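Appendix C: a fully annotated inverse folding record. The material below is reproduced so that readers can follow the format used throughout the book. The structure is listed first as tokens, followed by the designed sequence.
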């Protein structure tokens, strides 16, 4: 005989009041129990109940299928022996509901089934009340998320390339040529605004190259005064300058056999540009205070947010160095130019920070999502990650709400939004796109909105 609670109209009722329910349905208590058992065994979600000592008192058919344990095996056993999860003794949803008297909604956890296979599930739990309204145990419903996780993984793998995430055509084209560029030893220039992920591209180029087993060494060319920067790049012998009390290997020596990533190359002083040019041309360099040159077996990757061609024209960057660096240039689009990536990046960021901070945040409030999708992101991907990380740290619930966003984000986002009445319909948008030959940037300027907002309108209207 199955004992415990039954489910009627969204409430869990103790067996002591089944008779009252049966009378209203013109059925005997036994018929009611069979009827409710049939109902609970027909639903796709697992359902089980526990008594006040956390022993299982009800276990439906879906629970059997998900966990691998039969009803006979589960009944009467502590639920932690059936739902084997790392949170069983730390953050059990049923214990939390029983202790607080409040329901726990859709918390995602992993359990081990009978065959010790990890199963992702979504859990909701509530306190179970007896006929007098007193707590008598707990009830939990749970759903197998294996197929959903597999689909998410498939989407992630489809649009992910070495920690880079994008479904944008321009970015996908970069992903396509990266292995070929990486396989050569060619000097590569990464051009893109701050926060677009230039360092991730440099890491991908190194990891895909024959030098992957040697170091990737990074230096920011705008972070130090000229003399210190020279010593940092080329190294220095003891006594080469004031305060130099020992031999100091430079980044070139540290990157021997590997890759040297020169970030913000546009900030490199002119005097050092000459010395770097010599390394690129002859593969030789001379540490400060050294008596002779040294060979450099290094692959060079440079990055900048500046327009080096304009700097060459104004005389602030050497033309010959620019030509040496610009053998292959990879132009990384700003986030505003690839708004279709924002949902992917938000999901990636939330998943990353959930794991890092031990959170269980399920997603974003609809108002928050609209703000994040419409925000122009002058700081690009770095700004998006910072916004989500801040919200995740402050979030105490399972959803990120608007009060967790930076105060100025809503203001920046709404500046470029149009009122609903000013939004073109599908036919109007299609005509405007045709008039601009598909140039979304030009159309966005005409409409007075950012590209992200325009992209959402086009998507909502199902236009290519």
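Designed amino acids, in order:
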């Amino acid at each position: 005989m199955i004992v415990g609670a039954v489910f009627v109209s969204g409430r869990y009722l103790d067996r002591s009041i089944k008779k009252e329910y049966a009378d209203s349905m013109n059925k005997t208590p036994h018929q009611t129990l069979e009827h409710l058992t049939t109902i609970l065994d027909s639903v796709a979600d697992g359902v089980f109940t526990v008594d006040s000592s956390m022993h299982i008192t009800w276990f439906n058919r879906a629970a059997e299928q998900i966990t691998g344990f039969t009803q006979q095996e589960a009944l009467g056993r502590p639920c932690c022996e059936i739902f084997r999860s790392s949170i069983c003794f730390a953050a059990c949803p049923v214990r939390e509901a029983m202790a607080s008297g409040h329901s726990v909604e859709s918390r995602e956890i992993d359990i081990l089934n009978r065959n010790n296979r990890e199963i992702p599930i979504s859990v909701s739990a509530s306190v179970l009340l007896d006929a007098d309204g007193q707590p008598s145990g707990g009830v939990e419903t749970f759903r197998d998320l294996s197929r959903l996780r597999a689909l998410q993984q498939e989407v992630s793998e489809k649009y992910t390339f070495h920690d880079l995430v994008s479904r944008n055509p321009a970015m996908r084209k970069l992903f396509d040529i990266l292995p070929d560029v990486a396989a050569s030893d060619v000097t590569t220039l990464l051009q893109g605004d701050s926060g677009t992920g230039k360092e991730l591209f440099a890491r991908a180029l190194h990891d895909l190259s024959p030098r992957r087993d040697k170091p990737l060494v990074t230096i920011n060319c705008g972070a130090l005064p000229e003399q210190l920067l020279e010593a940092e790049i080329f190294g220095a012998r003891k006594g080469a300058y004031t305060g130099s009390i020992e031999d100091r290997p430079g980044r070139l020596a540290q990157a021997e056999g590997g890759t040297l990533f020169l970030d913000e190359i546009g900030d490199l002083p002119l005097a050092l540009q000459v010395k770097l040019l010599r390394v690129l041309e002859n593969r030789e360099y001379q540490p400060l205070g050294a008596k002779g040159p040294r060979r450099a077996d290094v692959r060079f990757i440079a990055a900048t947010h500046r327009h080096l061609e304009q700097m060459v024209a104004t005389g602030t960057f050497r033309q010959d160095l620019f030509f040496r660096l610009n053998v292959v240039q990879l132009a990384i689009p700003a986030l505003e130019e690839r708004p279709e990536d924002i949902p992917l990046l938000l999901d990636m960021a939330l998943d990353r920070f959930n794991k890092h901070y031990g959170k269980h945040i399920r997603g974003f409030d609809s108002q928050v999502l609209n703000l994040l999708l419409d925000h122009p992101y002058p700081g690009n991907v770095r700004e998006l990650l910072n916004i989500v990380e801040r919200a995740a740290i402050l979030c105490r619930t399972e959803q990120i709400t608007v009060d967790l966003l930076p105060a100025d984000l809503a203001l920046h986002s709404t500046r470029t939004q149009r009122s609903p009445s000013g939004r073109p319909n599908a036919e109007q948008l299609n005509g405007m796109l045709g008039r601009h030959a598909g140039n979304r940037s030009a159309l966005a300027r005409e409409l007075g909105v950012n590209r992200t907002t325009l992209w959402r309108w086009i998507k909502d209207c199902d236009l290519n």
